[in-house]
Specification:
By secondary structure, this protein is α/β, with parallel strands linked by helices. The protein has helices at 36-44, 112-126, 147-159, 175-189, 210-222, and strands at 6-12, 25-30, 62-72, 89-92, 98-101, 132-140, 163-168, 200-201. The chain has one domain (6-222): 3-Layer(aba) Sandwich (Rossmann fold), CATH 3.40.50. The structure holds guanosine-5'-diphosphate. Guanosine-5'-diphosphate (GDP) is lined by residues 30, 32-38, 52-53, 104, 168-169, 171-172, 203-205. InterPro entries: G_ENGB_dom, GTP-bd, GTP-bd_ribosome_bio_YsxC, P-loop_NTPase.
Length: 223
């Protein structure tokens, strides 16, 4: 599902700027620095697809990534030597989901206005995005669910958008703590209406939990 090259195809800062709903979509949300870029890069096996949150410009927008199925030469079928020198255009896969990188939240230096803008964009995006199959809410395994995360889960519950909690940076914990954190987090989300009743523990650094994560996404898309 994730084999093959991925492209950054679109960025939206406002709701009238969303790409058309084509195929299935999965989205990733989490606090700034939770390891969201690293996880998206590990998933797609591309080193710099999702840039780290410290790259200016891409922070307060929804970024859309699609898998390249093949490339088509420009002007195929027509003659003209000039055209054939142009770069081929990518044709995107309809089998792999579009990956949506949501802006990181909870960054301390961000003011109330930015938070309000984030919330509005997210609300607008979630509302009526019929091809959005699931939102993966990333939580730092060392810290667990904080208040800002709880507010996001609340938003997803209210919008009735199916989501799954994924712990990141699992390698930073000892095995016993990994188990404890996974179970404690599950206890916190198990009564939430839109939460998928399973918490995954991952590490982009070691690749732990990645096969399980890929399999979980595969099952969602096959539903
Ligand atoms: P983002 O802001 O959520 O996109 O987070 P990044 O992917 O940029 O990662 C933030 C920081 O966490 C960086 O310093 C990464 O090196 C670190 N990090 C990301 N993933 C892991 C992981 O799996 N294990 C550990 N130990 N650190 C990680």
């Amino acid at each position: 599902l994730f084999e093959g090259p991925w492209d950054f195809v679109w960025a939206s800062t406002k709701i009238d700027d969303l790409p058309p709903m084509v195929g299935q979509e999965i989205a990733f949300a989490g606090r700034s620095n939770v390891g969201k870029s690293s996880l998206i890069n590990a998933l797609t096996r591309r080193n710099a697809l999702a840039r780290t949150s410290h790259t200016p410009g891409r922070t307060q927008q929804l970024n859309f990534f699609r898998q390249v199925e093949h490339e088509e030469p420009v002007g195929a079928g027509s003659q003209g030597s000039k055209r054939s020198r142009e770069k081929p255009v990518p044709v995107y896969s309809l089998h792999a989901p579009t990956i949506v990188d949501m802006p990181g939240y909870g960054y301390a230096a961000v003011g109330k206005e930015k938070v309000a803008a984030w919330t509005r964009l997210i609300h607008d995006y979630l509302r009526g995005r019929a091809n959005l199959m699931r939102v993966y809410v990333l939580i730092d395994a060392r810290h667990g669910i904080k208040d800002v995360d709880g507010a996001v889960l609340e938003t997803l519950d209210k919008a009735a958008v199916s989501y799954q909690v994924v712990l990141t940076k699992g390698d930073a914990l000892k095995p016993a703590d990994q188990t404890f954190m996974t179970e404690a987090t599950f206890d916190e989300i198990k009564r939430r209406p839109a939460a998928f009743p399973e918490v995954l523990l991952t590490s982009s650094e070691t690749g732990a939990g990645m096969p399980e994560f890929r399999a979980a996404i595969g099952r969602v898309l096959a539903e």
